[in-house]
Amino acid sequence: MNLEYRGTETIPASKDAVWAFINDPASIASCMPDVLESTVVDPRTFDAVVQVAVGPVRGKFKFHVVLDPQPGGDRMNMKISGGGFGSVVDLDAGADIRADGAGTTLDWTGAASMRGPVATVGGRVIDSQAKRVISTTFANVKSKLSPATVAQPT
Amino acid sequence: MSTTTDSTPQTHSMGHSMKRKEDPRFIRGHGKYLDDFTLPGMVWMSLVHSPYPHARIVKIDKTAALAVPGVIAVLTGEDLAAHNLAWVPTFHGYDKQMVLAVGKVLYQYQEVAGVIATSREIAQDAAELVDVEYEPLDPVTNPFQSREDKIILRDDRENKTNHIYHWEVGKREETDAALAASDVTIKERIVFQRCHPAPLEPCGILADMSPNTGRLTLYLTSQAPHAHRTVVSLVTGIPEDKIHIISPDIGGGFGNKVPVYPGYVVSAAASVVLGVPVKWVETRTENLTTTGFARDYHMDVEIGASKDGRVTALKVATAADHGAFDAAADPTKYPAGLFGIVTGSYDFPTAFTELDAYFTNKAPGGVAYRCSFRVTEASFAIERGMELLARKLNMDPSELRLKNFVRKDQFPYPSPLGFVYDSGDYHLTLRKALDLIGYDDLRKEQAEKRKRGELMGIGISTFTEAVGAGPSKHFDIMGIKMFDSAEIRVHPTGSAILRAGTKSQGQGHETTWAQIAAEELGLDPQNIMVEEGDTDTAPYGLGTYASRSTPVAGAAIAMASRKIREKARKIAAHLLEAPLDDVEWTNYKFQVKGQPDNALTMQQIAFAAYTNPAPDSEPGLEATFYYDPPNLTFPYGAYIAVVDVDRETGAVKVRRFLAIDDCGTVINPMIVEGQIHGGLTEGFAIAFMQEIAYDEQGNNLNTNFTDYLVPTSLETPHWETSSTYTPSPHHPIGAKGVGESPNVGSPAAFVNAVMDALSPLGVTHIDMPLTREKVWRACRQATTA
Q: Mean pLDDT, to the nearest integer, of B201-224?
């Protein structure tokens, strides 16, 4: 089963700030929803354990995330692979980043490929779940880069 | 010529609706199924399955699983390879299949590792921790993609092609010429979708290798215990006397419990290695995703006819999707089963059929799901084809059928594709069906409704099966001839034990086998105990599937009974002090000819057999018979479905369904009716609900009963049944077998009815299952076109 998503976030921060943020594995990991634990492997890679509840498929999925910043600083690709309970999920996400006045616009796309039990429930349930994961991640990027958040170190 | 009647004779024991002897224990919940068995020291096995349909196995890491307290072992294909058990032969021996994946996986949910642990839960949890690294490969998900050979699936085979075999029968040139010369032809691709028997009890095993006796006892959900014993012996090298298979009560088989599955082999191997009993019971998802599926035939059907509706030729070319291994359950010499029955009930002057089978990245199988080896596919093809022809000729489908039926004076009828039909009166049976359902009135009602824009349809299916495999000159499985057997021992007081090589999975053998023996011996069927499924005690037989039990083992029971009766006659002559030739079996007693008062019952003879045997004769009263049938039997029927279709929602209501079956002599009418109700319900599910579908990535989309629907009493239509009776001329009691007829015959009746309803919209064919969505789309497309 293949699913595709896209969306746009306008972030009230400079393009440099956004670029620096999404190049940091720890920052990106902190934006993914339902993350139980994350481990930064190297400056481009992190592992995450995510709580998943999709129909009858419930439990912890392990994901391996590789950041692939494109030369020029205008695009970030992200490859997420993993799964659990006999299911496999591969997600190719990407974001085009451009300065937009005082802020930055982030046009993102995501293509998910699923196999195993999770694919069986796919058409009806997982579509909204996968969309939520991807959109929440980018929404959190925006949230964390908003002035109120930036001003208050966590 | 055969004789057909409207009622089956009721005699001493046959033809009576005797209540099923097995039901008291089932109704009370006291049946003993595989999962009810436990043994001291027993451990559990759970399987690890592949999420990928096609991938190389890079690495299997057992470490985390082995670290779980309670885990005893984790077995992989490499481990089995060390014992020469990584691969086992498939059903007919033409291919081999992996037990646990070696090198690469070939279908989603394929078995990759087995975890042995002290409890079921620990085994299942630890199976999640077996870390398998895969390198995904592009999958092949249908036979048409497969035949391009762009992706070769089976590296292990010498021929680097996905094509498994070509099979053909009939006269190709003659058929092509006849089609070309026909006034009218139809051609349609008709797909019988991949479906699954889905027995309520899934498959399982409890393997117990005794270090003390060196015997391997397998409690097994097996439709064919003796065949499985032989296969286990051939594969493992364990002498057959050291293998004991016990097939306990079975909660439905429908062909699904004929093959040997990886879970069986892994459990047995684990028990041999560990020296403790190992149990595996599959989950519903495992049953639907890995064990024997049915159908997946893509059939191009061509029929030619004259303008007045006389058929001239039939040609069917099929692409068969066999999945990852050629594990189709067919007799060795019949790679496409009995598909040659595709000429059906019709007298085609000539015919030709060919089939090409292909590997795909889907679960292997191709079992005879409540049918005799591809007879359902064949029946669906011809019955849909005849409906399309009737439409093209603008002729009533009943009239077209009556015009082309094999006539009763043509029996025994040699079909153009090589069968010799034994008996029947197709005209009488269809006319009875038309009369009972009020066909003419229904057509008038339909015409009225069409004027109002309402969609009502009437569908007919007049199928003929070929069952009862089979004669040893043609039928074998891995060389073992497809005879069957019965052993009867009459006890001194006139009760008896009857053992057969078959294995009931709900068919009611404990009742019907007793009725046959009681009829032949004049005994009380209540006092004949029937035992099956234990290879230590039952005579060797090929088991129960493909509607073969009554045609083959039922005949063996009658013949064993007659052997006993012949011996009893000698004892009677001794007791009656009469010459043997003067003693006759009359009215279920032995009497001196013409002297009904000078008679002895079988009970009296039985007592004498142990207390006062005839001089120079062996004491006791028992016999064994191995029956090798001279021909198949050919049950048939006329089914009519009446449906209303809601064009706004696509909902189909099956308003009426009449099934008239002719299965020859009926042993127990109640059991026959029950079989027909069950099979019709399965046929209804296949027609409207069920499909094991795969997406383009090779994901199995129907892995549980949420996605693979089983009809409940709420959805199931009301069934109307009736019969005609044409005894088989070559079967000792004239029986033909019935268990599979309704599953074979009904899908075409349902689909023909819906297509008839949609005919005002110009819709001619929709492939099953006819879901609301498909019907709605067809209506919408026709309306907006």
A: 96
- Confidence category of residue B375, pLDDT binned at 50, 70, 90: very high
Report CA dihedral (B319, B325, B331, B337) to the nearest 10 degrees.
Answer: -20
B170-199 pLDDT per residue, tens: 999 999 999 999 999 999 999 999 999 999
Q: What is the pLDDT of residues B589-645, one digit of tens each?
A: 999 999 999 999 999 999 999 999 888 889 999 999 999 999 999 999 999 999 999
Helices (H), B237-374: 262-274, 284-290
**Residue contacts between A and B (CB atoms, under 8 Å):** 43
Over residues B43-74, the pLDDT tens digits come to: 999 999 999 999 999 999 999 999 999 999 99
- Find, among B387, B380, B371, B179, the residue nearest to B298 by Cα: B380
> Quick one: CA torsion of B329, B331, B336, B338, rounded to 10 degrees?
-110
CA distance linking residue A145 with residue A122, whole number of Å: 33
Which of A56, A115, A122 has the CB atom closest to B51's CB atom? A115
Q: Where are the alpha helices (DSSP H) in B586-654?
A: 602-611
Chain A CB within 8 Å of residue B707 CB: yes
* Peptide bond preceding B470 in cis form (omega within 30 of 0): yes
ipTM: 0.77
Confidence of residue A153 (pLDDT cuts 50, 70, 90): very low
How far apart (Å, rounded) are the C-alpha atoms in residues B261 and B268? 11
Q: Are strands B622-627 and B636-645 parallel, antiparallel or unpaired?
A: unpaired
Name which of B52, B701, B703 is nearest A88 (Cβ-Cβ): B52
B370 labelled catalytic: yes
- Between CA B488 and CA A45 the distance in angstroms is 73
What's the pTM value of the predicted model, to 2 decimals?
Answer: 0.94
Our CA-based measurement puts residue A19 at a distance from the nearest CA of chain B, in whole angstroms, of: 32
CB atoms within 10 A of CB B579: 10
Q: What share of chain A is helix, strand, coil (3-state, %, to 5)?
A: 30, 50, 20
Q: For residue B131, give Cα distances in angstroms to A82, B70, B127.
A: 12, 18, 9
| Nearest alpha carbon to residue B663 among B543, B745, B720 | B745
pLDDT of residue A154: 37
3-class SS at B708?
coil
- Specify the DSSP class assigned to residue B45: E
Residue B91 CA from chain centroid, whole number:
15
d(CA B200, CA B250): 9
Give the chain B residue nearest A123 (alpha carbons): B701
As a whole number of angstroms, the distance between CA B254 and CA B264 comes to 19
Confidence of residue A152 (pLDDT cuts 50, 70, 90): very low
pLDDT > 70 in chain B, percent:
100
Distance from A85 to chain B by nearest Cα, in Å?
6
Q: Which helix (H) or strand (E) holds B297?
A: strand B294-305
**H/E element holding B24?**
helix B23-27
Of A84, A114, A117, the CB nearest to B703: A117
